[in-house]
Design goal:
Layout: H1 4-10, E1 45-55, E2 61-72, E3 86-96, E4 101-109, E5 116-118, E6 123-127, E7 130-134, E8 138-144, E9 148-156, E10 161-162, E11 168-170, E12 179-196, E13 199-214, E14 222-232, E15 237-245, E16 255-259, E17 265-267, E18 274-282, E19 289-298, E20 303-309, E21 315-318, E22 324-335, E23 339-345
Antiparallel strand pairs: 1-2, 1-13, 2-3, 3-4, 5-6, 6-7, 7-8, 8-9, 9-12, 10-12, 11-12, 12-13, 14-15, 14-23, 15-16, 16-17, 18-19, 19-20, 20-22, 21-22, 22-23
């Protein structure tokens, strides 16, 4: 459940973005694989999203986030290389847990002269030096900033899960078009190199992949969301997202699912899940106060866990790409079950 509000802000760049009949979803739509892994034309926005937990042989831990957005601006067929159809955006961050440091970089391109793009026939998405390519089974990612970079190979350890109803993921209760096509690969074996300040670290671990294709709709009823991707040490995964309305209450489209050791999806009753805040981080830059510590209880699964950030300041500030800020970071999981998590917090 990723940034469907954030990306739409970029559409304000063009007054024609909502006037050109971008595809609208309905509950009859569903994810089709492998087609929906690739770029899909005629949608207002779409994105490919990776987060992961990696470490060296001697136990030095890192987290990473790498996201690619394709935002529709104009559907006209241009002969000029400067014709603007899409904006391509990438957010890249690495958390150095031992060093208590968070590194971030954003990129944006109109795609002219091959600077950025996305293929409709294979997985090949790129924005300058940030690249995602491969298939549902194997992926390769590269991303580079001035003082940090990653080069990683990923292999699916579980099959994709279709979120919502066969991949139709409603985001605003009572609005059928307020939805995305959404699937995840929640467990990917990962290995490669992280470089920070000129030093290379050979790392391995796990990644989580999300893919969403967004319909054209108004999000003025939504304040933000709290999104959790939780990897438990017993080889299960939890996805929980709470979509908050303007009063700060959970919208009925909020969602939770447990993926068992064999990759089977078990939808959970969100109304029976307790989400209690235990810790806050206040940004000195934006003034936002984020709930970065959580106590989560799921009685039907005997799960009682606490989530705590490895590094307090994991706020991504996107001053010129999506014109917003949010907190997304690597966290520890303790309690009845142990593991690792990424949480994303928007609207604060």
């Amino acid at each position: 459940m990723r940034k469907f509000i954030i990306v739409l802000t970029a559409l304000l760049i063009s007054a024609t973005a909502y006037a050109e009949n971008y595809t609208t979803l309905s509950p009859d739509d569903s994810v089709k694989l492998s087609q929906d892994l690739y770029y899909r034309k005629n949608f207002a926005s779409q994105w490919w999203y990776l987060t992961g937990h990696l470490e060296t042989e001697n136990g030095r831990k890192f987290g990473y986030e790498l996201t690619f957005f394709a935002v529709g601006v104009n559907k006209k067929e241009f002969q000029s290389a400067f014709g603007l159809n899409n904006l391509y955006i990438s957010h890249f961050a690495v958390t150095d847990i031992k060093g208590n440091e968070y590194y971030q970089k954003e990129e944006i391109s109109r795609g002219a002269y091959g600077a950025a793009g996305a293929s409709a026939s294979r997985l090949n998405v790129f924005v300058y030096d940030n690249v995602l390519r491969g298939s549902l089974n194997q992926m390769h990612v590269e991303a580079e900033a001035e003082n940090f970079s990653i080069k990683l190979d990923l292999k699916s350890a579980k099959r994709p899960i279709l979120n919502g109803d066969n991949g139709y993921s409603n985001k605003v209760y009572g609005c059928g078009a307020c939805a995305s096509l959404y699937f995840s690969i929640t467990n990917m074996d990962t290995a490669g190199v992280i470089a920070i300040n000129g030093e290379n670290y050979n790392v391995s671990g796990k990644s989580w992949f999300d893919r969403e294709i967004n319909s054209d709709y108004n999000t003025d009823k939504i304040e933000g969301w709290d999104w959790f991707s939780i990897m438990l040490d017993d080889n299960r995964e939890l996805m929980i997202y709470r979509i908050r309305n303007r009063k700060g209450k959970a919208n009925k489209s909020s969602y939770a699912v447990l993926i068992d050791k064999n990759g089977k999806k078990q939808k959970l009753d969100f109304s029976k899940i307790s989400l209690d805040i235990t810790e806050y981080f206040k940004s000195e830059i934006t003034g936002s106060e984020y709930p970065v510590g959580w106590h989560i209880r799921i009685p039907e699964k005997n799960i009682d866990i606490k989530i705590k950030p490895y590094v307090k300041n994991q706020e991504f500030i996107a001053n010129y790409s999506t014109f917003n800020y949010y907190w997304e970071g690597a966290c520890s999981v303790t309690g009845t079950d142990k593991g690792k998590a990424y949480i994303e917090l928007t609207g604060y």
